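Q: Trace token order:
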Amino acid sequence: MTAPTAHQVLEDEIGFTAIRAQGAGGQNVNKVSSAIHLRYDISASSLPDAIKERLLALSDQRITNEGVVVIKAQTTRSQEQNRVESIERLQALVDSVATPPKPRKATKPTKSSQRKRLEVKATRGDVKKLRGRVSGSSD
């Protein structure tokens, strides 16, 4: 791995468990534990506090209520390739929250846009009034 940056995931903070993969694959699936379960405790990690907060705030199904990221990799038959893929997916998750979101600037609608909106509402209301039952005099 490369030298750790401000938001690089360190491999010694990651827990790996080899499990049997699901799906087709013949006898190989039943005998070999090639799938990988990656577990990464966000609060115990060496990530900056701001990134930890944004990760915990995500509504991602891979993050448990206890703040542990669980990633299951089982796309290849090789345990090592699945291990590398799970690390890449974890790093992508961390990178997705690495840049803080831009603060929202409150804007105010212009007078003309407010007037236009009210005019359109009034017009639509008039159209809907005309849809009512026609009451006529009976002779």
In short: The longest strand covers residues 35-41. The domain at 11-96 is CATH 3.30.160.20 (Double Stranded RNA Binding Domain). The radius of gyration is 28 Å. Strands lie at 14-19, 35-41, 68-73.
